[in-house]
Structure formats: C-alpha cells, structure tokens
Specification:
alpha+beta; Porin; eight-stranded antiparallel β-barrel
Amino acid sequence: MFSTLLTLAGMFVAPAMAEEPAPIIAPNYLQTPYYFEGLDGIVQDDEEPEDSVRSEQEAVRRGSDKKDESDGSSRRRVIMTIQKKNFLKVGRVEIGPTVGAVVNDPFLNRFIIGAIVDYHFTEVFGVELQLAYAPIFGTGGENDPDWKQLSKTLREENSVAPDISKLTFNSSLSLMFSPIYGKAAIFRTILIFDIFGNFGAGIVQTSDDLVALGASEDDDEAVATQNQWHPTTIIGAGIRVAFNRTVAVRLEGKSMTYVEVINSSTLEMKNNFIAQGSVTFFFPNLPR
C-alpha cells in the first residue's frame, strides 16, 4: 500500500519539477529606456514636444525595431540627443554702447551714456573696462532739468540748501564672474542667458551745484571743491541674453561708493546706484 502511494506521488511531482517556469517577457516599451532630451528638458508622455523633438522620437522608434547588425543581437539601442552649446565667450572680446541712469539720487536726474569693453579668459571669468559720461543739462535753479521736485521744494520754497553733487564722468576696471548659464524657450524661440557679477575699482568726477548750496562763484571755498575726482569701488550684477553667437543684450546694476569734500571743509560718503542696459557684440565670430 505504501509503495503504491509513493508511485502515484512521483507521477504528479516529477513532471512539475522537470519543467522550468516560463520567462516573463516585458513589453518592448518597458525593455528599453528611451530618452528624448530637447531644449526644454526631458519630454514626458503628457507633454507636446517641439517638431524637432518629435522627429527625433520617430527616428528612435524606427531604429528601435531593428536588430543591431554589428553583432546580430536583438539588443535595442538607447539614443540620447545632446544640445550643443553654440554660444561661447572664452577668448572673445565683448564691446558695446551703454545707456543708464542713477536711480537712488533723490535730488538729481542723472542720465549716463558710455561704452564697455570686456575680454573673457574663460566661460566664467573675464575683465571689463567701462567709460561713462553724464551730461549736465542745466545751471541750477527752479528750471534746471537736472533737479528733481524735492530739490526745487527744498531750495525755492523752504530755503534749505541740499547737498547736490552731480555725477559727470566715471571709469572703472572690474573682474567679471559668470557662474550661471542657461537656456529658456519663449514663443518657440530659444534664448541663451548667463548671470554675472562684477567687482572692481575706478574713478568718478563730480560737480557741486553752487546754486543748490547757496554759494556764488566768488566763494573761494565752494569753488575750490566744485569739481572733484574720487576713487570709487564697483560692485554690480546683471544678466546677459544672447540672440545668436555675436549679439547680446545686457541689463545690470552697479553700485559706486566714494568720499567727496563739500565746501572745502566737510567729508561726505556718497553712493550712486546705476541701472544700465547695453547691446554688445562679440569678436571674433565663431564658425558655424
């Protein structure tokens, strides 16, 4: 009886032990990781890609259905598209005109025109020379276009002499530092940008407004320090947007701090913050 039971158990168990479990075959789209990297990052299934990215997807799908002819295996290919960095600064000169204004002076309107020349040692570091001039449009008084309303109120209505010093010229040499580089898609147009800072020193020329100070040209002390040159520090930051390999637009702000003498007797620390924009051109041109 016992031997009969063993015989029957062997008839059911032996075939089960002899057969190997069937392999589980995953669908094709799970076997191969496809990466579609465009200018806007990795394209997800729920996103609508650009035409260029869509064509790359179709090319990958067509290629993935074919076997690797080099070794005869059925391995699928992983194709990654890498966008080339087509805007480079290293070893190039950047030059362009600038326009700006002093935005933190409560007494005066100061508009500035100038030029910048940069040389980029690397993609991150460079050096910049800037020259700027601020024209004087008036000679002081209520009708002076350089005076803001606060100056007119203090001088004409309250008989208070505000300390008005007009920035007329500045020159600076700065170290450029560009740690951030990126791309942005705006209305199907790819814009390349970088964020930079500059740190340096320079010189500033100022001209005291004798009318605002209540002084005349016969006042020797006021006239002696009316026009002055000052050493100044430069600290600034901005953003550069490149439209192609040669042309870019810059928006930036710079802070200048210096000490000047008033009426040949009083020392006063001044700070002018300049907001400026520029269109710059890079040389030499890069080959396509």
